Structure formats: structure tokens, C-alpha cells
Structure to design on (677 residues):
């Protein structure tokens, strides 16, 4: 009992420290986004620096002013959402097939594929930006959705494949054979039995891919030139202040808060699906 | 419903090992046949070839006159019950049982009707909306059975369906399986390593060893007339006792003394002259000599032995004693003894013998007792080939 309480206290303190460390910057951004740009540098102590004296939503308003054509933010936000979702869907579908094959079938070059995927994942993105820029210009993919989605897939697929292979391996093979004997084609068995059971893995992989595409900056800034396909992280760099002499700090902070929200929603929705023990009861263990 | 025919079926894995060798098996329409053997004998592989989960390297499998070698499992119209049940954990019991029907595009009302009916048969009605994770082992096993019977398939294939249950439940489910099969009259191939299950369930039993089918026959035939040492040692519990002997004319010399064979036995063996043999004696061929009447004594002989141990089981008792000299050395018996799944073969190696006695017997451990031995029930095997000398 004594020991339990003490352990509990130690854990609580540890968790509190980590939370503070990771949440403090987020809170600061929120604080910045609520301040009038002119007062951002004001404040003499932590209290009145960190907590905005006059809360204003002007920074948020400014982002959406001018409608879809003139706002510096709306079009990139739409781009980010679409590019993120399309990349996620394609990556998960392709990764599911690839991972299934790797987990279930014995074919020559299997380990080579896994090793290749891993090599790709640790490949420095910066080294591909130059060639991609030239290639995309020549192919007409520069500043288009596919121009970003393709490199995102290349870097997200290895990750998704690795996550899914791990989950598929956990599923008893007997289930699939049972489905086949029950009258399912291999594809039906995959779709009706394997995929639902691997759902936690599929959602985990989906979240990871989406976050990757959502946060990606290097390709976004290098392979786009206009709002036609520029995503939020890249667009933030092009924000201007209200006048020549004001920094766009407040606007950037407000945009930062807004782009964080979808990620939080995404994780919260899928978190409920990522439950352990979904496969328990399938077979006697 | 259909008959299943395996003709010269061989399974060779890519690494060259042959799991099943030239297997011929004829399962009649509506017949309940048991494939039995120690683990690794190829019985599951044979079943999976019938199911289509394993490719057939050579030979032919026919289900209802139709060659199914190249057919996918789904087109064979068979239902399988797996050792670990293989229930779909994300579906309720109802959906698990409806799964094959939905795939077959059966109308919804009919699915409901069939699932309800199967649930009633298997006493699962109140569990229909639960998930497999919340069921006990026995209930899961029944769901797996239910998923098989709703479809009314040509054949049931069962791969050790009861081996994950505890002993009491296993006996209970055994009668259940038997009852369901005889009611539905569906051709059934049932794989097990448990010879008790094999003997009690099937119309016929097929014994396998290292991929080779040893003998197919009714439980009675396998018990009374095993074709070789392996079948003799595998079928029966406690197992048959073996001791080396020397056949000379109409007597056999062994550690039990010089036994004079009755004419019937002598004739069934056929061969004349002198040769080494392995003598096989079922535990129940022994009896406490005190309890044997005059008639019976005439067809047997008595042996004296120092009893090491008596196991009192109520309805019967087992007396263990040691024979002089070496035990039997045989690959087949060694294999049986090594197989943890099978019952032990007490007499392989050390020459220990077990005798089944009437409960009335007063024989005590540590005493020297006189045992009667029924000479008409002896089995003789060729020490080199293991073949039963009486087998034609």
C-alpha cells in the first residue's frame, strides 16, 4: 500500500513533467495567437507575457479574410487536407496489399523488399528534392497535387508497410483458411476477415501517414510555387504582416493552432478504434 | 452429401519431405471416418488436401465423383472445424455462423432460420449476440461446429476439434459430435491423435504412420486384427504388451515360458518351421488364474509373475509385472513411445507387462501371483517387418 502510493506519486510527477515540457510550446502558440500583433513583445514578467492581457481573435479573422481567392490561408488549408487524405488512402491501400503479401506469402526477394523499404524510409529527403524539382518541371508535375502526393507516398509507404506487416503477422492464419473453406475467395477472406482484424493496425498506419503528409515542409516548399498546391506548412512561410513593419507572428501562431486541430480530431476519432485485444477469442490461446 | 475418394495421393513439400505417401482412402457417402496417428504422421496434411488448403503433389482427390485437385476450397462445398476453432473474433456468434451463408448469397430469412436452428441444436441460442472472446472453450467449439452445420455441405472435415477441451468436456462433446453426425448423415473425416476418440467415434478408423496409411477398418477389426506392430501398439489402452519369442512348430518360446499354441492360432499364422517372432498380448488376455473356470483354462495357460504394481480403477484393475530378458526393439514401437500425444507403450524397451484383471481379483502388489493367459488371443509379428503373421 505504502509502496503503491509512493510509486503513484513518482509516476504522477514524471508524467506532469513530460506533459509540461511537451505542452508548453503549444500553449505559448495559443497565447501568441490570441494577442494583438502590436502587443506581442509587451509584458515584463511571465504572468503578463504568457497570459494575453487583451484577448483578441483578430489573428484568426485575418487568416480567413478575403475569401478563398485572397485569403493566404484557406486554399493551402484545403490543399493540406486533400493532399493528406489522398496520400493516406493510397498509402494504406497499397501498404495493406504489400504487407499482406509479405506477412503471408513466401516469395523470392521478400527480405529484399523489406530491406529496400527500410532503406527508403531512412533516405534523406533533402537529397531527392533537387532531382525531383527538375523531373517534376519536365513532367509537368511541378506545383500540382500529384507532385506532392507521389513523394509523400514514397516516404510514407515503408512506414505503413512496416506497421501493417507487424499487425498482419499477429492474425492467426487459420482464420483466413476458415474463411476460404467457408466459401470466400482469397480477396473476400482478406477484406472480410483480415482487414477488420487488422483495423487497429490500419488506423495506426493511417494516422502516421496522415501526420507525416500534414506536417511535411521540405517537399511542400520546394515543389510548389502557388496556392494551387501549396500546403499550410509551406504557406506559413509566405505570410506577411498587416503592414510592412509588423511581423506576421500572430497570424502564424493562429494558423499553427488551426492546423493542429485536425490532427487532434483525427487521433481522437481513431484512438477509439485502436483497442487492444480485438483478436482475442479468435483461437484458443 | 457425397463420398470422398483419395487415390494414390502424395504430398511433397518444397524441401522434399513427403508428408503423405501414396494414400488410398475411400470414404463412403454418410460415413464417419477417423484419421488417427501420432503427431507428424501426415493425418492433418491429408485432411487439408481434401479441404484444398494444401496442394496435392500427386494423385487425385474426388468429392462426389468430381476431381477437386485444382479446385479452390470455396468451390469444394466442404465445411471444416479447426483445432483452434478459428472463429472470427470481430463477429458475433450469429454472424460467425451466418458467414458462410452470406458468402453463398443465401436469402436473409433463410440465413436467420438456419442459424436459429443450428443454435438450438447446439444449445447456443442465448449466446447468439455475444462475441467469441466472451465464450468458454466448449461454447466456442460449438460455435465452430455450428458454422459447419448451417451450410449443409457435402462433407465435414474436422481437425482435432476436441483436443483443446478439458477431459470432461471432451467426452461430452464427443457424444455430441457423434449424435450430430449420425442425425445429419453427412460424410465426415475426423482427424485425431487420440485413439480413444478414434475407437469411439468412427464407423471406420484409418491409422497412419509417417505419411503411410497402415490400416483402415472398423474399430473392432483394428483391435482384433491389427495388420502390424504399429497398429497393434497404437490401438488399445492400455497398449498391447510385446515380448520377443521364438516360434517352433506349434510352440512359442518366450519370456512367458514355453507356450503351446492352439490349432486355430497355429493355422492362422500359416508358416511352419522355426522363426523369431514378436508376441503381442492384450492386457485383457490375462486374468487372475483364481477367477478362471475350467473351460477357459483349457484354451489358456498359466504363468507366475511377481506383481510390481496394481492399479485399482473400480471396474477393473491393472497389474504390472516385469518379464525376464530384453524387451522388444522396434522402430515402430519406439515411435509410438516417443509420441507424447499417444498413450505410453509400457512394454517397449524394458519388458514390462500390464495385465487387466477383474475387480474381484485379490492379487496384491509385491506378491507372486498366478496369471492365466488366453492363448487363442495371442498376436504374432515379424520382428523385421512388423507385419502381423496372421494378416492376409
Amino acid at each position: 500500500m505504502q509502496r503503491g502510493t509512493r510509486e503513484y506519486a513518482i509516476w504522477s510527477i514524471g508524467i506532469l513533467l513530460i506533459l509540461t515540457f511537451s505542452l508548453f510550446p503549444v500553449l505559448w502558440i495559443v497565447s501568441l495567437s490570441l494577442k494583438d500583433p502590436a502587443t506581442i513583445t509587451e509584458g515584463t514578467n511571465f504572468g503578463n507575457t504568457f497570459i494575453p492581457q487583451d484577448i483578441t481573435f483578430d489573428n484568426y479573422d485575418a487568416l480567413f479574410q478575403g475569401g478563398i481567392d485572397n485569403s493566404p490561408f484557406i486554399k493551402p488549408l484545403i490543399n493540406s487536407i486533400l493532399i493528406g487524405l489522398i496520400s493516406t488512402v493510397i498509402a494504406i491501400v497499397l501498404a495493406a496489399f504489400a504487407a499482406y503479401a509479405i506477412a503471408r506469402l513466401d516469395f523470392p526477394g521478400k527480405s529484399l523488399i523489406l530491406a529496400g523499404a527500410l532503406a527508403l524510409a531512412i533516405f534523406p529527403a533533402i537529397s531527392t528534392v533537387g532531382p525531383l524539382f527538375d523531373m517534376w518541371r519536365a513532367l509537368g508535375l511541378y506545383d500540382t497535387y500529384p507532385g506532392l502526393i507521389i513523394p509523400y507516398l514514397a516516404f510514407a509507404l515503408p512506414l505503413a508497410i512496416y506497421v501493417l506487416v507487424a499487425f498482419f503477422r499477429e492474425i492467426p492464419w487459420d482464420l483466413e483458411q476458415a474463411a476460404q473453406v467457408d466459401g470466400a475467395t482469397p480477396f473476400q477472406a482478406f477484406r472480410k476477415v483480415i482487414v477488420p482484424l487488422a483495423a487497429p493496425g490500419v488506423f495506426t498506419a493511417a494516422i502516421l501517414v496522415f501526420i507525416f503528409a500534414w506536417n511535411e515542409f521540405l517537399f511542400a516548399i520546394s515543389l510548389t510555387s502557388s496556392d494551387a498546391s501549396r500546403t499550410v506548412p509551406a504557406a506559413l512561410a509566405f505570410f506577411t504582416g498587416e503592414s510592412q513593419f509588423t511581423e506576421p507572428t500572430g497570424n502564424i501562431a493562429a494558423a499553427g493552432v488551426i492546423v493542429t486541430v485536425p490532427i487532434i480530431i483525427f487521433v481522437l476519432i481513431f484512438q477509439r478504434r485502436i483497442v487492444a485485444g480485438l483478436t482475442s477469442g479468435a483461437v484458443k490461446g | 452429401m457425397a463420398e470422398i475418394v483419395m487415390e494414390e495421393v502424395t504430398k511433397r513439400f518444397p524441401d522434399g519431405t513427403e508428408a503423405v505417401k501414396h494414400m488410398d482412402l475411400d470414404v463412403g457417402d454418410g460415413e464417419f471416418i477417423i484419421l488417427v496417428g501420432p503427431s507428424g504422421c501426415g493425418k492433418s496434411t491429408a485432411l487439408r488436401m481434401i479441404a484444398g488448403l494444401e496442394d496435392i503433389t500427386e494423385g487425385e482427390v474426388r468429392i462426389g465423383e468430381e476431381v477437386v485437385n485444382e479446385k479452390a476450397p470455396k468451390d469444394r462445398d466442404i465445411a471444416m472445424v479447426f483445432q483452434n476453432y478459428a472463429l472470427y473474433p470481430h463477429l458475433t456468434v450469429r454472424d460467425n455462423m451466418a458467414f458462410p451463408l452470406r458468402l453463398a448469397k443465401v436469402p436473409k430469412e433463410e440465413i436467420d432460420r438456419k442459424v436459429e436452428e443450428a443454435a438450438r441444436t447446439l444449445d447456443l441460442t442465448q449466446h447468439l449476440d455475444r462475441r467469441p472472446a466472451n465464450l468458454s472453450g466448449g461454447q466456442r467449439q460449438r460455435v465452430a461446429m455450428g458454422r459447419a452445420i448451417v451450410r449443409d455441405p457435402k462433407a465435414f472435415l474436422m481437425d482435432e476439434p476436441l483436443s483443446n477441451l478439458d477431459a470432461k468436456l471432451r467426452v461430452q462433446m464427443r457424444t455430441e459430435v457423434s449424435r450430430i453426425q449420425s442425425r445429419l448423415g453427412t460424410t465426415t473425416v475426423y482427424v485425431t491423435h487420440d485413439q480413444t476418440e478414434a475407437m469411439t467415434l468412427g464407423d471406420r478408423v484409418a491409422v497412419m504412420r509417417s505419411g503411410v496409411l497402415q490400416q483402415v477398418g472398423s474399430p473392432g477389426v483394428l483391435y482384433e486384427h491389427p495388420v502390424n506392430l504399429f497398429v497393434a501398439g497404437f490401438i488399445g489402452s492400455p497398449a498391447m504388451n510385446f515380448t520377443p519369442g521364438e516360434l517352433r512348430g506349434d510352440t512359442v518360446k518366450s519370456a512367458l515360458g514355453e507356450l503351446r499354441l492352439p490349432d486355430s492360432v497355429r493355422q492362422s499364422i500359416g508358416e511352419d518351421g522355426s522363426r523369431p517372432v514378436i508376441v503381442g498380448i492384450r492386457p485383457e488376455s490375462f486374468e487372475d488364474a483364481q477367477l478362471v473356470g475350467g473351460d477357459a483354462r483349457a484354451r489358456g495357460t498359466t504363468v507366475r509373475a511377481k506383481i510390481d504394481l496394481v492399479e485399482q480403477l473400480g471396474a477393473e484393475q491393472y497389474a504390472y509385472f516385469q518379464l525376464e530378458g530384453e524387451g522388444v526393439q522396434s522402430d515402430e514401437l519406439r515411435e509410438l513411445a516417443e509420441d507424447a500425444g499417444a498413450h505410453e507403450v509400457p512394454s517397449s524397451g524394458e519388458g514390462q507387462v500390464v495385465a487387466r484383471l477383474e475387480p474381484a481379483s485379490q492379487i496384491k502388489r509385491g506378491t507372486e501371483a498366478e496369471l492365466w493367459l488366453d492363448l487363442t488371443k495371442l498376436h504374432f509379428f515379424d520382428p523385421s517387418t512388423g507385419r502381423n503373421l496372421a494378416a492376409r
